[in-house]
What does this fold into?
Amino acid sequence: MSRSNPDDASGDRRPLLALILALSATGQLSFAAVPPVLPELARALGVSRGAVGLVHGMVAFAGIFVAAYVGYLLDRFGRRRVVRWSLLLFGFAGGACFFADRYWLMLLLRLVQGVGASTLLSVGIVLMGDQFEGSRRRWALGLNVMAMTISGTLGPIAAGALGEGGAFRPFLLYLVAFPVWVAARRLPEPAHPASPEPPGRHLREALQDLRRRGRLSDFLGLLPLSTLTLLVYYGLTHAVTPLFLESEFGLGTTQRGLLLASGAAASAVASALAGRVGARLRPVAIICVSLPLAAAGFTALALAPTLWAVGPGVMLVGSGYGLLVPVIMGFATSAGTPRYRGILVGTYVSGNRVGMFAGPALAAVLANGVGERPTFLAGAVILGGLVAALLPLRRLAARRRP
It folds into this structure.
């Protein structure tokens, strides 16, 4: 299979859809497999609880610098070749973390793994844009986020169970990249011709295309919104929450994994409904609902008097995140023409990686200094501030738009 028609919605495209979802789920596992064992990793590596958040966040660090370039490579050399090399890098570096008994070595391997993860977490969005249009694209992007959140649901459960036998065992989950690498040989290439321009010129032309289409200000506004949201979400759910569950309630790795999975499950359900919600509400309205949902969840965690109150808070956060992400992904995918889809999505993913890297590292340090509960409240305040600033900033951008 070398080319595919986006308007073809026949059943023979289901294997391709399953492959795209498998790529996104594999990439999401880079974040899902580590949180349940963070306290044990801190002890095994001989570092503080504040420093161990960097083990989780380092996988996103590489994406800050390479995700946009990977997007260019997807436009320049096609999808299949870039994806297969990325899967090999992801699987080898991630699996090697099982043997990394030194903190610096763990960080180095997670950094290398992050180069491969940068492709896997963006190519699903690019491929959905290649293969679907209109309402079917929204439906497919909802499925893509659902696949990522299912990975985020099952990953912590599997990692928590494996972590009972040793803090390094969850890294063996990354070996799943190798069977996906075999399947990826059937990836199609886009119908539009490859872009021969160097990356800087290609990006400039992509931004000029957005300006002509009247979407540049919305795209540029999307980047800080997505970055700050992911900074709060990944920092609090992937770093602070497992530390909170261990220190406040004494939960082991399996119980922590199950609780984190409940939030991912709620996110998967919300993502599955995103297509229907998007048909009834404008994107701005969905953003104004999803961010307060997540803020309410973090507030509930900060005030939780017992363990029974933690689950609903985690699920509220997951629901807000699951509603928000398909909206943002949909705009990043459709803002420009197909010729520039790879680099625009890559630029969007680079911004996301800033939040995914900085969030766990900063949140773990803050929680170590002031405590987990005040850190949850700080995250809720940031999300509330984003909602309060969104509409005035959009009106200002609309007045400045030519």
